[in-house]
Design goal:
The chain is α/β, with parallel strands linked by helices. The chain has one domain: 3-Layer(aba) Sandwich (Rossmann fold), CATH 3.40.50.720. It is about 40% helix and about 10% strand. The chain contains 11 helices and 8 strands. It has an 8-stranded mixed beta sheet, sandwiched between helices. A hairpin with a 2-residue loop joins strand 7 and strand 8. The protein starts with 9 loop residues before the first helix and ends in a 6-residue tail after the last helix. The relative contact order is 0.15.
């Protein structure tokens, strides 16, 4: 389905494409995969809006991308761990910008110690899913003004760890486990794309989720040396069970490739609710540790249950 694969870079995926006139908003846009995604899109003429919680870092990254590409780059301060910050940012965005053609929900936290968001949600679920759930829905007036809009949620193969525990999302009755927490938040990212597709496909808005690959970015900033060693051992054991060598880490340009592919690939025109990896649509697979999407992550009933619970958490209903 795709000429690209594991080692393709963002620039290679976008080669020959003209994004002039397109507006892309990228959360977590001042570092790592978000920064590279924004840079690659700006290099093809896109108007890029970088969103993140640190105004100083946003400004510095915006200046660097604009200088390197000649593109228009704006910034939007937004802390995904605060519903108030999200609402303020969305109101500002709807006031300042004309449209959003590509909404890239890239930001996230990984394997952090137990913590709560400003609104009392478990930190990883609250930031990775709930923050993006509210922001996406509040930005929908801009997305609806876009041309063939796409919404791209960065998930992870970490969704293989577990489904969403709908009975104890915030670890109120079970012991906190940073990897289980991460896993259910990444499953939620996939389910959110399914829920969006169910609601918006008939309006010409399509949604995708993806695994960018294993990449060393500041996403792993909360991980100790022991955590990293445990992760590497898990990767080694999984590969050994498959009779393979462990998959190498990707560079940041390679890691941003699937995001850029999901956002622009002509092969995906008119289709959505899909989970992608290595610049192709992944197969449903409940066994392999080396790829694929778990059935519980693309289950429409799970997606609806998650949507309803998410609306309850943010105290707002979104009807399309």
């Amino acid at each position: 389905m795709s000429e690209f694969g594991f080692s393709s870079t963002a620039d290679e995926v976008l080669e020959g494409k003209d994004l002039t006139g397109r507006t892309a908003l990228v959360t977590g846009g001042y570092s790592g995969l978000g920064q590279e995604t924004a840079r690659a899109m700006a290099a093809k003429g896109a108007h890029v809006i970088l969103s993140g919680r640190d105004a100083t870092k946003l400004s510095a990254t915006a200046d660097a991308i604009a200088e390197g590409t000649g593109a228009k780059v704006d910034t939007l301060v937004c802390d995904l761990a605060s519903l108030e910050s999200i609402r303020n940012a969305a109101a500002e965005a709807n006031d300042r910008f004309e449209k959003i053609d590509l909404l890239i929900n890239n930001a996230g936290v990984m394997a952090c110690d137990e913590a709560k968001t400003a609104d009392g949600f478990e930190m990883q679920f609250g930031t990775n899913h709930i923050g993006h759930f509210l922001l996406t829905n509040l930005l929908m007036p801009l997305v609806q003004k876009g041309e063939n809009p796409r919404i791209v949620n960065l998930s992870s193969r970490g969704h293989h760890i577990c489904p969403v525990d709908f009975d104890d999302i915030h670890f109120e009755r079970r012991d906190y486990d940073k990897w289980v927490s991460y896993g259910q938040s990444k499953t939620a990212n996939v389910l959110f794309a399914v829920g969006l597709e169910q609601r918006l496909a008939d309006k010409g808005i399509h949604s995708y989720s993806l695994h960018p690959g294993g990449i060393m970015t500041n996403l792993s900033r909360h991980m100790s040396d022991e955590d990293m060693a445990d992760l590497m051992e898990r990767i080694r054991k999984n590969a050994e069970e498959r009779g393979e060598q462990p998959e190498p880490f990707k560079t940041i340009p390679q890691g941003a490739a699937t995001t850029c592919w999901a956002a622009t690939a002509e092969e995906l025109e008119g289709a959505g609710g899909l989970y992608c990896e290595d610049c192709h649509v992944a197969d449903e697979d409940n066994e392999s540790t080396g790829g694929g999407v778990r059935s519980y992550a693309i289950d429409k009933d799970n997606a609806e249950r998650l949507w309803t619970m998410s609306e309850e958490m943010v105290g707002q209903t979104f009807a399309y």
